[in-house]
């Protein structure tokens, strides 16, 4: 789902097959944009990719605080 390539976006972690860093997703979510709107604004990112990153991140956050 994600890739880091020093030749793409200065090595930022991006959605595979795109030049969209995952930071852009989280910045937009933080500003109140929904995931559906995000994929409309960044059509090279699929809804499945965005949701996968969000699920993974949520899982890591839950693990960090000990929530099941």
- Secondary-structure element string: EEHHH
First and last CA, distance: 24 Å
Number of strands: 2
Q: What is the helix content?
A: 40-55%
Strand content: 5-15%
Spatial shape: globular
Radius of gyration: 13 Å
Classify the oligomer: single chain
Q: What class would the helix/strand composition place it in?
A: mainly alpha
**What is the helix tally?**
3
Q: Ranges with pLDDT <50 over ≥5 residues?
A: none
Most strands sheet:
2 strands, antiparallel
Q: Order of strands side by side in the largest beta sheet?
A: 1-2
Mean pLDDT score: 95
Features:
two-stranded antiparallel ribbon, globular
Brief overview:
This protein is mainly alpha-helical. It is built from three helices and two strands; from the N terminus they run ββααα.
Structure commentary:
The structure is a single chain. The chain is mainly alpha-helical. The chain is 51% helix and 9% strand. It has 3 helices and 2 strands. A two-stranded antiparallel ribbon has the order 1-2. Strand 1 and strand 2 form a beta hairpin. The protein is globular. The mean pLDDT is 95.
Furnish the topology, listing elements before pairings.
Elements: E1 2-4, E2 13-15, H1 22-30, H2 35-41, H3 47-65
Antiparallel strand pairs: 1-2
